[in-house]
Design brief:
The chain contains five helices and no strands. The protein has 166 residues and is mainly α. It has one domain: Ferritin (Up-down Bundle), CATH 1.20.1260. The chain is elongated and about 55 Å long.
Length: 166
């Protein structure tokens, strides 16, 4: 049975709240300043998603339709993430807590992209489609940066431990 728009909105809000809880906990537990900044930034992004989805939910409950999605402003997130990904390589053990948290965060982002992309494809309301596509794209950006950091850390551990086959 297909999920209703309300069911998907509830699932999305819950997913974002769980993501925020995860990032907030990871930020508190890390010993790395760069990792703390990344996790705090990701928690703040989840807050934006929760706020946006909550407004969409309230609007939908009242109007039985979606409001027009506002495009995500990607201020200087790319620059900040690039700087922090360089810093994190010098501060984090690739087999330690922070690397494990980054890997787990990638799973959160993958799940969000999947849910939002599927709903964007199946939505019949144009505003609903745009809402979920915008969210899927936003989450893809998060996944991209986490993946880059994860790959850099994996390469670092290979290099540090002389795992190269030559």
């Amino acid at each position: 049975m297909a999920k209703s728009a309300v069911d998907i909105l509830k699932e999305a809000i819950l997913l974002e709240r769980r993501g925020k809880a995860f990032y907030t906990t990871a930020a508190r537990q890390t010993q790395s300043e760069a990792a703390r900044k990344i996790f705090e930034m990701m928690a703040a992004e989840e807050d934006e998603h929760i706020e946006f989805l909550s407004k969409q939910f309230a609007y939908y409950e009242q109007n039985k339709s979606f409001m027009k999605a506002q495009p995500h402003e990607d201020t200087d997130e790319a620059t900040v993430m690039a700087i922090l990904s360089e810093e994190i390589k010098s501060q984090v053990n690739a087999a330690g807590f922070e690397a494990a948290a980054i890997s787990a965060a990638m799973d959160f982002e993958t799940r969000a992209v999947q849910i939002y992309s599927e709903r964007a494809q199946s939505a019949t309301d144009e505003n609903e489609r745009e809402t979920y596509q915008m969210l899927a794209d936003w989450e893809k950006g998060h996944h991209h940066w986490l993946h880059k950091i994860n790959e850099d850390l994996k390469e670092q551990i290979w290099y540090d431990n002389n795992f190269w086959p030559f």
